[in-house]
């Protein structure tokens, strides 16, 4: 039981689009050379805006899509080298909760069938009363077992999504913006539920979100991504940002307190197209500190284990 | 949403209900023709030939004095069974082909698409005529001809459905649990693709009845003395002035049945709320 | 100053279902009123009632009246109401991706507003469009007017939608969740632009959002809606400092902020019921920590309190 539960090294994903009869093929790097470790029991946050590659990263880690380059080692086993059958068995130990609770449940399945699916695809016998127990664990009444997803509210559906992910008692769960399409009142419920389940079941989470405030509340360590690259790893939730982008993210959140209104200094410039990234640091087009060096050379994540940052002019 | 399945709920619509009632009537007439019909379909009574509607023959008689109502009921048997069987065959093959194309993609998909697009660009009647010419006239030939004529439609619809469903999160969720290809195809993709295909099949059955009648009219369908609506119209066409009922009643039967199928189909589409999905098939 | 938009005891129904129950609000020039609540609380419906668009969704005002600049909207002809929308009232919708016509160039879409409402010529309208885009800090406005929507980012599109709302020189802007579909850094930008417009031009802004952070950042007053009823209304300072209604307090407490202890966020139990299943008495009582038998039996009236009003039997009581 030593070493990290998950270690990824140099993970890269390149997507190609077009290339059909009517369009030129273009390539974009959705995830560029990402390396990180997740310790057992940790909640690692990945934060970034749309197009930063956080969802792609999640899918790469679970091998729902194949990486172009890099290694993923889960509890000593290299996932990237695993044949399909062994990978399928490994999926018992890793699970995912998806962003959209409306489309993540098959509309033709009753909840009982949704919750039986993990056992079925892993050819494991389902204990009697398992459905009722799973529903109870996520705070849903047993009577919902015969309901269809469309009869549930968004928050209830997401609870079902969580119950399904935890059905086979995994060690590691990827949470891909599990509250992004819910009301704040329901978001707080779901986050509280996830925290309780983590304590009860000893889970390790990779929590993906665009909401830095939420990530700082829920996670132990925070990875900040911008256009496919990791720009900073905040070692704890109190750490002051060192990358100008992280700083901008923090300044963009509004506290629910009119006494703490801030002068908004919005980021200027535009987010570059992922198909045409600048040669140097991807953030140069919006960064107040950008120098000629930033524009021509790409900064790499510093090897400072205490607080890695990829910036030539850290704050 | 109520506990009734959509095909039952569609009957609650006024138009859907009337159309459904006609379809039930015509199917019952076809099924129970031997019990219900007052005569045998090939019982000739030359003395009574060209008789118009009477107490003994409600819809009159044809040129051989055979009872038109009886022949209409037996004709329904031929028309409906040939069309329904042909469409079922077409749906079964089309779903397998379309699902396989969408699932495997690549070269196989491109080949299927090209063939489908090619057949799609010919009128169904032309395809059917060519096939009957090859297989030979008769019910079996007609059935196969109709099945092939509509194959492109179901292949294309199923392929489009599966392509859309493949991107749904619940498919990704199943994969994240360790589900294999076969499981996902059989448990998630095909069941969800089925409803729109079912409605398309329903509507195509209407077209198939017309196609079957057309082939029958040309003498390529069921061979005499077995009655079919197309064959009856063909016989009546020469006698249009002498005994117009011989062509009018089977014509009305075709029209009313096809109309009923279309109206009921519309009600079913509204109940299943799949209009947008059907449109996706182009 | 007299209010530009005023709703007094407005009730709204769609078919037989009553959705809004005696909502009273007012927005003054140069002020921002925030309208907040969970989905299903009736925020967007209130906006639609405010501009007489209810018939579009089969709804109608069953009680009360909506006045714009002192005139009852219901008493106007449809032509007068149409002239109001776009000309004196501008809209910013939630989803900038669908608010723009995908096959029309940006310039044309903005031009048409001032050509229609201000009767400007083609060239004058274009000049005005370029001016507006520059004011909204859209870089390279001259190139953007020739672009199609799909060529622009989400934040850029939302600024175009704001430009369209401003093109008719309106006095009131109604913005329905204008930043919900946007990234946080872009949200900050848009909020800053909206705030500056109100400050610099003396516009009135009705800002609909589910985000208490946004409300705290730029609104002068806030109206909290729950299940089609006003829970609390008043100036933001006192309301955030000491919310009198437990629902307001709960909404604020849902947002993690600097110093929120881990595990302290629990959310609001339960969920917003459908309009067919509103509770008797106070509609919030099934989810409320302070609820008593009284709350179950009788609906609390909206009573004045400090500079605002609140509808709670236990207003301001310690939780």
Task: Detail the topology: elements first, then pairings.
The complex is a heterotrimer of chains A (315), B (282) and C (319).
Chain A: E1 6-17, E2 26-38, E3 43-47, H1 54-61, E4 69-74, E5 77-78, H2 84-90, E6 94-97, H3 111-121, H4 130-137, H5 154-166, E7 172-176, H6 184-201, E8 204-209, H7 212-218, E9 221-226, E10 229-234, H8 244-252, H9 292-296
Parallel strand pairs in A: 3-8, 3-9, 6-7, 7-8
Antiparallel strand pairs in A: 1-2, 1-4, 4-5, 9-10
Helix pairs in contact in A: 3-5, 5-6
Chain B: H1 6-9, H2 14-31, H3 33-36, H4 68-104, H5 106-120, H6 124-135, H7 139-166, H8 169-176, H9 181-217, H10 229-237, H11 245-272, H12 275-280
Chain C: E1 5-14, E2 17-27, E3 32-36, H1 43-50, E4 59-68, E5 71-72, H2 78-84, E6 89-92, H3 96-99, H4 106-117, H5 122-135, H6 141-144, H7 154-167, E7 172-176, H8 184-201, E8 204-209, H9 212-218, E9 221-226, E10 229-235, H10 236-241, H11 246-253, H12 293-297, E11 303-305, E12 308-310
Helix pairs in contact in C: 4-5, 4-7, 5-7
Family (chain B): Belongs to the binding-protein-dependent transport system permease family.
Domain ABC transmembrane type-1 (chain B): 76-265
Subcellular location (chain B): Cell membrane
């Amino acid at each position: 039981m030593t070493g990290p539960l998950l270690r990824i090294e140099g993970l890269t994903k390149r997507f190609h689009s077009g290339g059909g009869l009517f369009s030129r093929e273009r390539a974009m790097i959705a995830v560029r050379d990402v390396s990180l470790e997740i310790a057992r029991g940790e909640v690692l946050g990945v934060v970034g805006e749309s197009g930063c590659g956080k969802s792609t990263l999640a899918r790469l880690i679970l091998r729902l899509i194949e990486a172009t380059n890099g290694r993923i080692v889960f509890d000593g086993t290299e996932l990237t080298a695993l044949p399909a059958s062994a990978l399928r068995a490994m999926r018992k130990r890793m699970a995912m909760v998806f962003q959209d609770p409306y489309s993540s449940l098959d509309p033709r399945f009753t909840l009982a069938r949704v919750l039986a699916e993990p056992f079925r695809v892993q050819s494991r016998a389902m204990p009697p009363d398992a459905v009722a127990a799973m529903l109870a664990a996520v705070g849903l009444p047993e009577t919902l077992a015969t309901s269809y997803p469309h009869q549930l509210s968004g928050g209830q559906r997401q609870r079902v999504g969580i119950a399904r992910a935890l059905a086979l008692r995994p060690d590691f769960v990827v949470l891909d913006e599990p509250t992004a399409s819910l009301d704040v009142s329901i978001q707080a419920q779901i986050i509280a539920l996830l925290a309780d389940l983590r304590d009860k079941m000893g889970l390790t989470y990779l929590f993906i979100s665009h909401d830095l405030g939420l990530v700082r509340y829920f996670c132990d360590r925070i990875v900040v991504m911008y256009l496919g690259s990791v720009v900073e790893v905040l070692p704890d939730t109190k750490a002051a940002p060192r990358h100008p982008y992280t700083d901008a993210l923090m300044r963009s959140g509004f506290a629910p307190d009119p006494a703490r209104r801030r002068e908004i200094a919005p980021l200027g410039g535009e987010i570059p197209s992922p198909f045409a990234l600048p040669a140097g640091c991807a953030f140069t087009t919006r960064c107040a500190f950008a120098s000629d060096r930033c524009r021509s050379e790409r900064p790499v994540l510093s090897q400072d284990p205490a607080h890695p940052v990829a910036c030539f002019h850290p704050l | 949403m109520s506990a009734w399945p959509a095909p039952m709920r569609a009957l609650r619509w006024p138009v859907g209900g009337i159309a459904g009632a006609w379809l039930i009537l015509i199917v019952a007439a076809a099924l129970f023709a031997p019990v219900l019909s007052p005569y045998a379909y090939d019982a000739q009574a030359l003395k009574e030939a060209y008789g118009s509607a009477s107490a003994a023959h409600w819809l009159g008689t044809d040129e051989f004095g055979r009872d038109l109502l009886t022949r209409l009921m037996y004709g329904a048997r031929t028309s409906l069974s040939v069309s329904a069987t042909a469409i079922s065959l077409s749906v079964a093959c089309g779903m397998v082909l379309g699902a396989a194309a969408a699932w495997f993609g690549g070269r196989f998909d491109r080949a299927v698409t090209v063939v489908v697009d090619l057949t799609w660009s010919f009128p169904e009647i032309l395809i059917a005529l060519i096939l009957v010419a090859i297989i030979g006239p008769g019910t079996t030939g007609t059935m196969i001809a109709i099945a092939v004529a509509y194959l492109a439609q179901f292949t294309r619809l199923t392929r489009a459905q599966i392509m859309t469903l493949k991107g749904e999160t619940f498919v990704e969720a199943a994969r994240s649990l360790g589900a294999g290809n076969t499981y996902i195809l059989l448990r998630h993709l095909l069941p969800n693709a089925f409803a729109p295909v079912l409605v398309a099949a329903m509507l195509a059955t209407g077209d198939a009845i017309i196609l079957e009648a057309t082939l029958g009219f040309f003498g390529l369908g069921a061979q005499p003395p077995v009655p079919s609506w197309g064959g009856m119209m063909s016989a009546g066409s020469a006698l249009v002035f002498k005994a117009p009922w011989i062509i009018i009643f089977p014509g009305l039967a075709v029209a009313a049945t096809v109309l009923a199928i279309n109206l009921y189909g519309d009600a079913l589409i509204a109940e299943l709320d799949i209009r947008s999905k059907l449109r996706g098939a182009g | 100053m007299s209010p530009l938009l005023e709703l007094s005891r407005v009730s709204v129904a769609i078919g037989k279902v009553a959705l809004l129950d005696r909502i009273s609000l007012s927005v003054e020039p140069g002020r921002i009123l925030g309208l907040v609540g969970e989905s299903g609380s009736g925020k967007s419906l209130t906006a639609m009632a405010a501009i007489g668009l209810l018939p579009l969704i089969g709804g109608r005002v069953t009680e009360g009246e909506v006045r714009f600049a002192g005139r009852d909207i219901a008493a106007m002809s449809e032509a007068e109401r149409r002239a109001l929308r776009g000309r004196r009232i501008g809209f910013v919708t939630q989803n900038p991706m669908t608010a723009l016509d995908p096959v029309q160039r940006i310039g044309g879409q903005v031009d048409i507003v001032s050509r229609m409402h201000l009767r400007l010529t083609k060239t004058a309208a274009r000049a005005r469009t370029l001016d507006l885009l520059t004011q909204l800090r859209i870089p390279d406005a001259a190139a953007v007017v020739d672009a199609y929507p799909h060529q622009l980012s989400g934040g850029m599109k939302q600024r175009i939608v704001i430009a369209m709302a401003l093109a008719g020189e309106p006095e009131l802007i109604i913005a329905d969740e204008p930043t919900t579909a946007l990234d946080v850094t872009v949200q900050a930008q848009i909020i800053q632009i909206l705030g500056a417009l109100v400050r610099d031009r003396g516009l009135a802004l009705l800002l609909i959002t589910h985000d208490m952070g946004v409300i705290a950042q730029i609104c002068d007053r806030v109206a909290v809606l729950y299940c089609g009823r006003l829970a609390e209304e008043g100036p933001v300072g006192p309301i955030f400092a000491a919310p009198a209604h437990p629902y307001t307090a709960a909404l604020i407490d849902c947002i993690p902020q600097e110093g929120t202890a881990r595990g302290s966020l629990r959310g609001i139990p339960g969920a917003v019921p459908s309009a067919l299943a509103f509770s008797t008495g106070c509609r919030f009582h099934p989810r409320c920590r302070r609820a008593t038998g009284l709350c179950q039996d009788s609906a609390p009236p909206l009573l004045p309190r400090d500079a605002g009003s609140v509808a709670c039997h236990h207003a301001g009581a310690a939780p």
